Amino acid sequence: MPPLGPGGPCAERRQSLRPRLSLGRATPRAGVHRRGLHPRRTAGGSPRRVGGTRPARARRFSHPHGPPGLRGGPSVTVPLEVHQAEERLQSILKAVVVGARVDEPASRPGGEDALAFNDAGALQPPYEPEALCLLVEHSNSLRQNVDAYATNIDGFGYRFEPSIDFDADGAREKVADAMALERLAARDAGTLPSGTPPLPTDEEVTAHAEEVRQQARVEKARLESFFDFCCFDGSFVELRRRTRHDVEVTGNAYWEVLRDGKGDIARFVYVPSYTVRLLPLDKEAVEVRERVRISAVSFDTVTTRRRLRRYIQVQGSERVFFKSFGDSRVISRLTGRAFADVTTLKAADASDGPATELIHFAIHSPRSPYGIPRWVGTLLSVLGSRQMEEVNYLYFSNKSVPPLALLVSGGRLSDASVPRIERFIEENLKGKANFHKILILEADGAGTGEGGRAKIELRPLTDAQQQDALFQQYDQRNIDKVGAAFRLPPLLRGDGRDFNRSVAEAQLRFAEDQVFQPERDEFDFLLNRKVLADMGVRFWRFRSQTTATRDPERMTEMVERLVRVGVLTPEEGRHLAGDIFHREFRKIADDWVKRPITLTLAGIQTGVEDLKPQKDKGSLLGEAKRLLGLREELRAEEERLAQGRLALARRYMDTEHVPVPREEFDTWFSGQPT
Q1: Which residue from 330, 393, 400, 612 has the highest number of Cβ atoms inside 10 Å of its Cβ?
Q2: Can you give the pLDDT at residue 103?
Q3: How far is CA 164 from CA 161, 174, 615, in A?
Q4: How many C-beta neighbours within 10 Å does residue 107 have?
């Protein structure tokens, strides 16, 4: 059996399970193997010099201090099929949009070595990105925190909120304010027609409100269609989850933005963060045109001069350059040089093409343009937990204590007894059939007489055996440190021990208010400020969905009571119900949803017209129909009142009829005395 010292094969195997980090501003390849976990060595045993191009083949590493059989036999090989499968999965795709052709994505899928960053003049990241990825793969505490971020921040979908809710009260006032702001901006720019008043009239507001209502409906349909198909091989939610995973693991994430022939955004492509590096800021400022919001539903184009940055992605012997999002220059995809136009670029190299744009997401660092992961301060805790796991794993192979010891005193075992004992333990002590088998031991005495009698004793060693894993408290403390770096409660990290309902709700509410919602707001701001503004979206804003941290049953009961007593209108209750059920309810344009339910019920019972639902409110034709109907109702009411007055007059003015015999009645008019 080989020795268990520091130079033995077990120590080498233990080292092979531990990733090596480059913790300083070293070269991209320093101190870390790209696919294996040991640095490549030359035939002489010295580490291979970084900077050369290595052939694309399976990475192998061996134990230099192991036994001859291990050193001369087949070495441990990292499966190349995994990387080939990933390359096939993330193959470069082309897309054709109706009416225009989309640019081919310039980014390359992950899975190959990047060796030319220094030659291109890229900035060195504070921490090696691929080493950070390896740490997450080998850590027992990082992955669950990263998954909790990706699920709770980016995993609940999205919705579009209107800039102006045309069905709400005060929509006409907001439209009038937007028209006034647009006219003031046009007056300052000198484009307002002469004689146009700064404030719009009521007729102009009514006509414009109906026009923008139709435009908003069409724009929402366009937005929903775009985000449903903005990614090649997955949904937009899946793209966000991958982006969050890269941001939390390496501190950086990247999207490649593809445009169609008209220059509009057509697709987003996920770019592996460990394959991209930043180039220094350009020395000369570039004129950039940006859209800024001047009112709730309109933009203005502002021209500024900014120093922009280019990016480079290296895969094996290939390298591709990108430009910053919003950069209007024509940048070479192969060299990173700027050209006057595409024709000049093609004239220099027919195989070259214009570089696409890249959106950079990062966790801010005050000392580097790169982002730094939030857990990097607990790096020693992560490495310590990994070493603890290795120690416990190797205990069963190298430090196991036998359960029983055979002690012989006053003599020695015969030569045939030792192999007999070994064979009996290995073959005849397993299974219920051998439960009562007896082991007979024989020993030769060391001398003669009574003092030379041999003594055999079986002594259990269970007290000396390790009953549980080592360093459990140390590992638990390390897990808590990593969770504290993410500011996540234990429940979200998969630890559900010793929790009741109130504690769990308090922890989820804390994480939602203090961790997840600020991250969502930051992402939504970036998307609205850059992407939607570039697309010219005027009437809608992107909004990430949130998880329901409230009790649905309690929330439903509270909303029902508030609506029933008239504190909330039915429309406000439906809005809160949308948060409970995580869906957007259909808009109801009737007036009864905008007033307390008690007033609506009172109007139905008393027959008061003002309290009944009124349809077609808000349009000129509807108002005209309502006025005509009101006039007819007034006319009918006047006729009804006139008929009532006539009947009343007739009832009080009629004389009493007294029956008179005809003979006496005739004498009244004949002139003869009776």
Answers
A1: 330
A2: 60
A3: 9, 7, 21
A4: 24
Sign of the CA dihedral running 155, 160, 163, 169 = negative
CA 179 to chain centre: 37
Which helix (H) or strand (E) segment is 273 a member of?
none
Closest CA to 236 of 174, 299, 157: 157
Integer Cα distance of 3 and 292 in angstroms:
72
Q: What is the pTM of this model?
A: 0.66
Asked if 22 and 30 count as a contact pair (C-beta separation under 8 A), the reply is yes
d(CA 451, CA 43): 64
Residues 6+ apart with CB under 8 A from 625: 616
Place of tokens 């077609």: 616
Q: What is the pLDDT of residue 313?
A: 93
Cβ contacts of 635 within 8 Å, gap of 6 or more? none
Cβ neighbours of residue 471 under 8 Å, at least 6 residues apart?
Answer: 388, 391, 392
- Token pair for 484: 């504290």
C-alpha 440/C-alpha 433 separation (Å) is 18
Taking Cα atoms as reference points, which of 128, 156, 145 lies closest to residue 20?
A: 128
Residue 585 phi/psi, 5-degree rounding, is -80, 155
**Cα–Cα distance measured from residue 25 to residue 48, given in angstroms and rounded to the nearest whole number:** 19
| Angle in degrees, CA 600, 605, 607, rounded to 5 | 90
Location of structure tokens 């390849």: 29
* Residues of the chain under the 50 pLDDT cut: 1-78, 82, 85, 88-100, 111-112, 611-613, 615-617
What pLDDT score was predicted for residue 561? 83
Nearest to 287 by CA among 331, 256, 323, 326: 326
CB atoms within 10 A of CB 477: 13
How high is the mean pLDDT of the chain? 77
What CA–CA distance (Å, rounded) separates 488 from 152?
Answer: 11
Three-state secondary structure call for residue 219: helix
Closest Cα partner for 338 from 279, 274, 289? 279
Question: φ and ψ at 298, to 5 degrees?
Answer: -150, 155
Cα–Cα distance measured from residue 223 to residue 637, given in angstroms and rounded to the nearest whole number: 52
SS3 of 120, please?
coil
Question: Cα torsion for 214, 217, 220, 225, to the nearest 10°?
Answer: -100
Work out the burial of residue 111: count CB atoms within 10 Å of its CB; fewer than 13 is exposed, 13-18 middle, 19 or more buried.
buried
Given this model, what pLDDT does residue 49 score? 41
Let me know if 432 is exposed, middle or buried by CB neighbors in 10 A (0-12, 13-18, 19+).
exposed
Which has the closest alpha carbon to 476: 375, 385, 395? 385
Q: What angle do CA 334, 338, 341 make, to 5 degrees?
A: 100
pLDDT in the model for residue 539: 93
Each residue's pLDDT tens digit, 629-662 = 778 888 888 888 888 888 877 776 666 667 778 8
Sketch the domain layout of the chain as residue ranges: 400-436+455-464, 552-611
Q: Is 533 exposed, middle or buried (0-12, 13-18, 19+ CB in 10 A)?
A: middle
The residue among 164, 148, 168 whose CA lies nearest residue 215 is: 164
Please give the backbone phi and psi of residue 245, each rounded to the nearest 5 degrees, phi first.
-60, -45
